[in-house]
Amino acid sequence: MILAFETSCDETSVALTREKEVLVNLTRSQLVHSEFGGIVPELAAREHIRYIKPMTDRALREANVSLNDIEAVAVTYGPGLASSLMVGLVFAKTIAQMTRKKLIGINHLEGHIFSPLIDYPHLNPPMITLIVSGGHTELILVKDWFRYRLLGETLDDAAGEAFDKVARLLGLPYPGGPQIDRLARQGNPDFVKFTIPRIKSGELNFSFSGIKTAVRLLVEKNPPEWVEEHRADIAASFQETVVKMLLRNVKRAVEITGVKRITVVGGVSLNSRLREVFREEFEEVYFPSKEYCMDNAAMIGVAAHFRLRAGFESDLTLPAVADLQLEYEE
Ligand code: KG4
Ligand code: ZN
User: Fold this and answer.
1) Number of the ligand closest to the Cα of 160
2) Which of 17, 50, 146, 237 is the most exposed place for a label (fewest CB within 10 A)?
3) 125-287, what's its fold?
């Protein structure tokens, strides 16, 4: 059994996992940031400090286990906000030291890569994984566990960031992704013809700054009443274009690698239009259930199980690494 922590951003999450099974996964999204239109690091760290201990007590209680029953403590050590990461890291280290259990640091992105295994335990590499979240847009070939090849990444904004910024332009609250998803259902996706940036045939990188700017210009050039009236149409057109951009690159990745098994993970993988289109286009595509799309400790626990079994372990000097990258091979 693994006790896992995730505090890389604005979700405090504690889980108890056994191999790929989740015994309990508690996640608390911080609401304090909504009035600022983005995450305030200082407030995020304070909220983590406030909730991590009571949430851990509750997780142990709900699973009816004690700290003695766990084999290891897993924790996200990057990438993320340094001050947020630090809270989970110090807490996890304290427990590991106190109980003399193993400590294992997990890369947040690797956690997302393992997240579909909770719902689909028989899933195996090779597979193509699209990570789409508030901070990341990465297209990865998972050759084997821990053996990744980076196929493409965003050259500017992350996909979720684009959703959040466009939502803000349309006067919708943060986080904008779910708001745009909801609003787009009542809108016409062909209302605005946003151009999809033309890129070379073998190119698998993403760029979302162009469409974000196009929405900004549209909002600035038209009267507020017009924008208000067509908010759903703009949201639908924007969403449709982003989904097409993601789809195009994943299709190319399938052609280039010959790998047909696809997983889509991270907050944006919750998008209903993205799920619909990808399910139509690909024979074998997997999405985590909602709880495991968003940042959560369960995926950290599952990744930790694989890492520990492969002989990895961290020590108490493990630092928080805000800009931690996955280790890629060719
Ligand atoms: O994975 P996540 O919870 O946190 C990060 O690691 O960033 O992703 C959060 C992002 C936010 O940008 C949010 O707007 C986006 O996921 N998101 C969505 C939807 N639900 C959440 N984007 C589009 N459609 C959704 N339904
Ligand atoms: Zn994430």
Assistant:
1) 1
2) 50
3) Nucleotidyltransferase; domain 5 (3.30.420)
pLDDT truncated to tens, each residue of the chain (330 aa)?
999 999 999 899 999 999 999 999 999 988 777 777 678 888 899 999 999 999 999 999 999 999 999 999 999 999 999 999 999 999 999 999 999 999 999 999 999 999 999 999 999 999 999 999 999 999 999 999 999 999 999 999 999 999 999 999 999 988 899 999 999 999 999 999 998 877 776 789 999 999 999 999 999 999 999 999 999 999 999 999 999 999 999 999 999 999 999 999 999 999 999 999 999 999 999 999 999 999 999 999 999 999 999 999 999 999 999 999 999 998
Please give the distance, rounded to the nearest whole angstrom, from the Cα atom of residue 232 to the centre of ligand 1: 19
Calpha distance 50→52 (Å, rounded) = 6
208 touches ligand 1 (CB under 6 Å): no
Give dist(CA 300, CA 98) in Å, integer: 21
Cα 190 to ligand 2 centroid, rounded to whole Å = 31
Atom of ligand 1 nearest to the CA of 266: 1
Say if CB 215 and CB 163 are below 8 A apart: no
CA-proximal residue: ligand 1, atom 13 (nearest): 177
Q: At what angle do helices 159-169 and 176-184 cross, to 10 degrees?
A: 70
Ion ligand 2 residues within 5 Å by Cβ: 133, 295
Same fold, 2-114+292-309 and 125-287: yes
170 within 8 A of 118, measured Cβ to Cβ? no
- Which tokens belong to 194? 């946003």
Please give the CATH topology (third level) of the domain spanning 2-114+292-309: Nucleotidyltransferase; domain 5 (3.30.420)
